[in-house]
């Protein structure tokens, strides 16, 4: 029987350890006084989440829930907290469902976390970045914060619990943000209800140190209130009544009709934006947000997992990622091509239950 030489075995171990240590650098875990601190550490990729990162976060968050007083999550570098999930790998029919399964378990855990979970949303915070922030108890926006759920542009839908938190925003704002992918900045993120506090970026280092010494939720809340700066007028204020009216419609076609009636700069721009989105994604997204309004977070994530798995098996999601992020020709060929072509059966097929062994299972599910 052939045996590996000792040197070969040792070399293999060294290579393996190097690989592991380089992978582990994608997300950093450290302890600071009473706090566990997570740093998303892929600044060149705007701290986008991949399977390795969420796989490491899940057990660490579970352990800290039992042993720490609070958790702080932040992003490395100057530009982003987290620009989303690594969708180039998520379009794979095998890897995609694996990634979504673990990512949604992380979102689920954050949503029911027993100790204070505080996200520093400093910089770009999109898609999956909202999934690891918005479900937490405290979300800190800064002057650099830029949030969006731009999934309808790549043939997907606002996931990571988007079907839960978006329909719960005031005056149909969440339906508007989820369908158009429009961006909110800085204090607008607090005004919308997505962030809980506004703190200037230069003060985050000091805030982190002081938070780590807090002993209970009351101390944390008082400290955040001391650092918080009051919001200014919402940049969408002049069009809130139009957002509320247009996005109360029950179909995409009726939303478009209402926008055409408004006839101002905002509605013309919004119509143009919607015309550039994937038609199938628009209808699937609206249906998911309408249903999500009646569901709790675990139910929303289960529904989204079905949609995400179907997205990896269908045409539009891989095509959107190809056109916008891989080939970058910005010319996706959607199928179905138009809103008229998107049938009720097409939409409902996305929502059907998966085979039992493929459904989303939570890490703490009772067997």
UniProtKB/TrEMBL annotation:
<keyword id="KW-0378">Hydrolase</keyword>
<dbReference type="GO" id="GO:0006574">
    <property type="term" value="P:L-valine catabolic process"/>
</dbReference>
<keyword id="KW-0101">Branched-chain amino acid catabolism</keyword>
<protein>
    <recommendedName>
        <fullName>3-hydroxyisobutyryl-CoA hydrolase, mitochondrial</fullName>
        <ecNumber>3.1.2.4</ecNumber>
    </recommendedName>
</protein>
<dbReference type="GO" id="GO:0005739">
    <property type="term" value="C:mitochondrion"/>
</dbReference>
<dbReference type="InterPro" id="IPR045004">
    <property type="entry name" value="ECH_dom"/>
</dbReference>
<comment type="pathway">
    <text>Amino-acid degradation; L-valine degradation.</text>
</comment>
<comment type="similarity">
    <text>Belongs to the enoyl-CoA hydratase/isomerase family.</text>
</comment>
<dbReference type="GO" id="GO:0003860">
    <property type="term" value="F:3-hydroxyisobutyryl-CoA hydrolase activity"/>
</dbReference>
<dbReference type="Pfam" id="PF16113">
    <property type="entry name" value="ECH_2"/>
</dbReference>
<keyword id="KW-0496">Mitochondrion</keyword>
<dbReference type="InterPro" id="IPR029045">
    <property type="entry name" value="ClpP/crotonase-like_dom_sf"/>
</dbReference>
<dbReference type="InterPro" id="IPR032259">
    <property type="entry name" value="HIBYL-CoA-H"/>
</dbReference>
<comment type="function">
    <text>Hydrolyzes 3-hydroxyisobutyryl-CoA (HIBYL-CoA), a saline catabolite. Has high activity toward isobutyryl-CoA. Could be an isobutyryl-CoA dehydrogenase that functions in valine catabolism. Also hydrolyzes 3-hydroxypropanoyl-CoA.</text>
</comment>
<feature type="domain" description="Enoyl-CoA hydratase/isomerase">
    <location>
        <begin position="36"/>
        <end position="351"/>
    </location>
</feature>
